Sequence to fold (150 residues):
Amino acid sequence: MNTPSPAKADAVLEALRRVMMGNNRLHAALASELGINPTELSALTHVASEPGLTPKALSALLGITTGSTTSTTDHLARAGFVVREPHPGDRRSILLDLTPAGRHAMLWVLEQYERALASTYALHPDARPDVIAGFLTDLATQFDQTVTKP
Fold:
């Protein structure tokens, strides 16, 4: 196993902290540009990733109450980004999906991240996107496993 020295591990951890803080700032700025709050942008991102998500599942993904999720989805629906549809298998439930405006908003958000990535790749012409993607995917898996451990 290729374990980095403590100094290198600290540098990676500091870089990760900076990435997370920068992402938080970008996420908030993008949400503001769309006229929604950061939690609503997170909700929109989850619905984009999993069309047909139930509000209960969205609550779990966001880590907020079902009441807060109702408020969040109400605002996203009023803003024209999501639509609620009847659940075909449970008449007491609904499914959330993006509207055309919601899909357009998510494409615009992705373009902002793609622009940042392109600028970063230009600074590191020898970087291997497949290795970086693999590392980040494995890190995300570790985060998920840490969260789901009893």
Summary: The longest helix spans residues 6-34.
